[in-house]
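hey can u check if this looks right to u? its 170 residues, i copy pasted from the old doc so theres a chance i mangled smth
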Amino acid sequence: MPELLPRRRLDQPRAARRVISIDPDAFGRISERLARFLGTGKYLFWQTLIVVVWIGVNLGAAALRWDPYPFILLNLAFSTQAAYAAPLILLAQNRQDDRDRVSLEEDRNRAAQTKADTEYLARELAALRLAIGEVATRDYLRGELDKLREDLNTKPRKTKGSRSEPITRP
């Protein structure tokens, strides 16, 4: 049986056919900037000003009434804005969550490395304390030499004669 071409295999996903290639990272950055702008006082000020002017013109100027009292077009504009703003804000939050997750993982790795380093240093310090306990100190050596000197001074010294005399040194 002849092998099917890769584009016709049913067990393989199709290659993506995109007419327009969109960089997801660039789109994410743009959406984050837009989401940040939507949460500022500057945006709220300008939106409020546009709404007040819209309502004022549609109520006051009889010749310019393009959206009469129930303001259907204004409601449509708000609905469209909400339909785009909510996903953009969610996208920005997801990107922030991803950054927080990476940062948290780095913090965990750093904390684990710090803990391992601290435990290693504690073991090394304990080993040094044990090693220092086995090393003769200056005071210990001085005391041992003093004892040896006393022993040498008090031991009888044999001479050619039959008697032994203790060694006395000034």
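The chain has one domain: 23-154.
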